[in-house]
Design goal:
By secondary structure, the chain is of the alpha+beta class. It has helices at residues 2-40, 42-57, 64-71, 81-93, 97-128, 132-147, 160-169, 177-190, 192-195, 203-212, 219-228; strands spanning 149-152, 232-237, 242-245, 254-264, 267-275. It is elongated. 16% of the residues are buried. GO terms for molecular function: cysteine-type deubiquitinase activity.
């Protein structure tokens, strides 16, 4: 849903940019056309403008002097039916700002309608999307039944991989996630040739995040944990795939983890698993 909403916001932003570009091009077109007319026949343009001004003063054949006489107390000019019709035609033909405003309103209404249509389409698309969280939970339950596993929920706080390993290792002195973090970081540092080539930053800063922050862990960290604690790690996924991470020396001890991609708010998550017969 977050990815879908982000895509919709991007599409709306791109549409706004297109509309702004159309407004700019329209304004440039008007200015260019007006410049071409003035360059081609400036005298004719002035003549036509003068005629329009004169027509507005002598509507219906009434001269400006007649208006002056009327203001001085003379008889009001007489307008015939044809004169009134001509007056109305001239008024309606005069270019006015409301016409431009009406185009802007129409453009705004069209843009609003397009945005509303996008919102409706997004809502319909979201309604038809499968519930990935529910699907993953159901699939994981089926896989746990197949392999005879039970699950222990781990807090989704950024330490889940280390907490799940600490819970599953379960010695008499069970390590908490802090000890697991520190052990993994120190092992990586002491075996830098095995880990540094797969890191996108210096190993010193990478391992510092493991020890001192809630940085998420992944495959590299699981490799270090498997080796430092001499334990086979089985990571079960909802699709049935089991990723196996083994220590350098063969070990009979193993732990199970459940790996989720969609079921928890922070994203990827690990829970602890154990064989049901283990009590």
């Amino acid at each position: 849903m977050d990815e879908l909403q982000a895509r919709h916001r991007k599409e709306q932003k791109e549409l706004q940019g297109v509309n702004d570009e159309c407004d700019r091009l329209e304004q440039e077109l008007r200015e260019r056309q007006q410049g071409e007319i003035q360059a081609l026949a400036p005298d004719d343009l002035e003549t036509e403008t003068a005629k329009l001004d004169l027509g507005s003063e002598q509507v219906g054949g009434v001269a400006e002097s007649d208006h002056v006489k009327n203001e001085a107390g003379g008889a009001a000019p007489h307008l015939t039916v044809d004169d009134r019709g001509y007056q109305q035609d001239m008024d309606s033909a005069s270019p006015t700002r409301p016409k431009k405003q009406s185009r802007q309103k129409a453009r705004l209404a069209r843009r609003t309608a397009e945005q509303e249509a996008q919102v409706e389409a997004a809502a319909e698309e979201a309604a038809n999307m499968p519930d990935q969280r529910q699907q993953e939970l159901s699939a994981m339950r089926r896989q746990m039944e197949i392999h005879g596993l039970t699950e222990t929920m781990i807090r989704p706080d950024g330490h889940c991989l280390y907490s799940a390993c600490a819970h599953s290792i379960g010695t008499s002195k069970a390590p908490d996630y802090r000890r697991v973090r520190t052990a993994a970081a120190e092992f990586m540092t002491s075996h830098s040739d095995d880990f540094a080539p797969f890191m996108e930053e210096p190993i010193e800063s990478y391992t510092r995040k493991i020890k001192d922050t809630a940085e998420w862990g992944g495959h590299l960290e699981l490799q270090a944990i498997a080796k430092v604690f001499s334990v086979n790690i089985n990571v079960l996924q909802a699709n049935g795939h089991i990723e196996q991470i083994k220590p350098e020396q063969a070990s009979e001890k193993e732990i199970w983890l459940a790996y989720y991609k969609h079921s928890f708010g922070l994203g990827e998550h690990y829970n602890a698993l154990q064989k049901a017969s283990a009590g």
